[in-house]
Amino acid sequence: MSTYVFKAMDLAGVKAKGELEADSKQAVSDQLKQRGLIVLDIADKHASRQIELEFLKTVKANDLAIFSRQLSTMISWRSRPRTSSSRKRSWRCARTSRRAYR
């Protein structure tokens, strides 16, 4: 006998999931139908591994807004065209500021 993982729903629309031991998927389906459930999915237990990360399910709107703003800033800063005149200006500014501290 193998262990199967199932997802089902009753007539009221309430979802159910669990594990059953049976000889085949058809036997699991028959057992669920006897309970009055509508079968949505049946899989072998070893093949149905899913990674569920709880912290990814709830992202606050404020955190998402901050992330979006910061990502936008990084992208727009990186895509700014660099010209030789802007490099000269920044060099001049750095040079004049060094003079002020002497």
As a percent range, the share of strand residues is: 15-25%
End-to-end gap: 86 Å
- Largest β-sheet summary: 3 strands, antiparallel
Q: Overall 3D geometry?
A: elongated
Number of strands: 3
In spatial order, strands of the major sheet run 2-1-3
Helical fraction: 40-55%
> Mean pLDDT, nearest integer?
79
Order of helices and strands: EEHEHHH
Number of helices: 4
* Structural category: alpha+beta
Description:
Helix content is 49%, strand content 23%. By secondary structure, the protein is of the alpha+beta class.
What would you say about this model in short?
The protein is built from four helices and three strands; from the N terminus they run ββαβααα.
Note the topology.
Elements: E1 2-9, E2 15-22, H1 25-34, E3 38-44, H2 54-57, H3 61-78, H4 84-101
